[in-house]
Amino acid sequence: MLTNELFSQANSPESVGIPSKAILRFLEGIDRDRTCMHGFLLLRHGLVASEGYWSPYHKDSIHRMYSVSKSFVSLAVGLLIDQGKLSLTDKVAKFFPDKVPENLHRYLVDATVRDLLMMATPHSRNSYCRYDKDWADTFFKMEPSHPAGTIFSYDTAATVVLNTIVERISGVPFLEYMRPKLLDPIGFTKEARCIKTPEGTSWGGSGVLCKLQDMAKLAYVCMNKGRWKDEQLISEEYIQEATSKQIDNSLGGHPGYGYQIWREKNNGFSFRGMGSQLAYCYPDKDFIFTCISDTQGAGATGAGIQELFEILYEEIADHPLPEDPKSYVALQEKIKTLKILPQDGEQSSPLSENINGQWYEMSENPMKITRMRFLFEEDEGVWEYENASGYKTLRFGFGKKVHGHFPQTGYFMDQIGVPSETPYKCLSSAAWVEPHKLNLLVYITDIYLGTLKVTFSFKGKDISVLMAKVAEWFLDEYHGFATGIAE
Length: 487
Fold this sequence. Notes:
The structure is a single chain. This protein is α+β, with helices and mostly antiparallel strands. It folds into 2 domains: 3-336, Beta-lactamase, CATH 3.40.710; 352-486, Calycin beta-barrel core domain (Lipocalin), CATH 2.40.128. Helices cover 23% and strands 27% of the residues. It has 12 helices and 23 strands. It has helices at residues 20-32, 68-82, 106-109, 113-117, 135-141, 156-170, 174-183, 212-223, 236-242, 306-313, 325-336, 352-355; strands at 37-44, 47-53, 63-64, 193-194, 208-210, 227-228, 231-232, 262-264, 268-273, 277-282, 287-293, 360-362, 371-377, 380-387, 390-398, 402-405, 411-412, 419-420, 425-434, 437-445, 449-459, 462-471, 480-486. The N and C termini lie far apart (71 Å).
């Protein structure tokens, strides 16, 4: 393969040893299971074997990467080590004279860069919450539970500290530091950015926003031992260590952990982010699977996707396969029609006419909603309600999704701890799951991802409501039971 062909389109999946029909079955399984995937990209021998996006997402969508950000921070650490500005054995406390207390516990005194890279901090849980004003500071103020470097315990505060070290040494945000050395040479998106912590550093533990191809390109650099084309962008030695097993995490059912990078079966490694932002890398097959999604609430990261992917993985050949024009055409047609599915169910109910426009007075409830009603307009509807912050409306579709903005504001945007009056973008749909029961499904599709599911059940003049949200640090006002009666 010529080096200038990196990330160009393969002639067909078969030309790089992947059956089109296997990819098609994978996509059909995703839709059959109603998994909320946003995009996928398969890379074999440096060529794009297949790529697709679920509308309204597309190739140029800037997407939240959540904990995939941690793997990016690891690469920034590696670049500093390559420059001789940082060492794996450096004690992290020395970089924080302004935060370290005089009586710092010896477990924290001894904690090294390597300890934090392999998620072996001296803490048994994350040290900060959304309300803390300085997340790095909490790492040194919380009482530790065991010596650093001994036990794997997933801890985003470790990445916050590592990222802060990178930014203190480099003097710039970590993505900016990485640009000339690593990101620009691979064509990483100029618009990529990172949400900030309350203290103003980049939230390297969860906040990176970039394109799916950006994640895939960094995964490729790691699988290619730090190289892009003919250029060694980051040392092979660091990449080898970062992607290898450095600590056991089998207690959680995993085959090991490197430096902010997970180990996988079949001699693989991965970047993993909440909601199933994934990059699975398999050097032995020269193959990378990447995807962006929002599967929060559907189980562990990768749940529903990994099982289908493993079936696909088993069909990858070590040589080109005979062309399969029929399956290839079917695959291309499937990719063209990918879209996030609306709420499943019926688009109408015999009760619609009686409910349409009827206000319901709500009893006291956790959501602090005082009254609500529905307006039905053919294949769309509007949910009107009043809560503690005022009058709200949300438009939704029947058998389709309606693009809009979620009516609640005051949530975080570019910096944690700073409320914004800008509403989050969302996709909303509803369906009758029983003649008397309407289910509402709202996907938040902004720089924060989340899901709100609501059941409205009607019985005579009574309405019963159950709201369930899966979202980190927002939609808290939309969780619980409520009841009301027609006015």
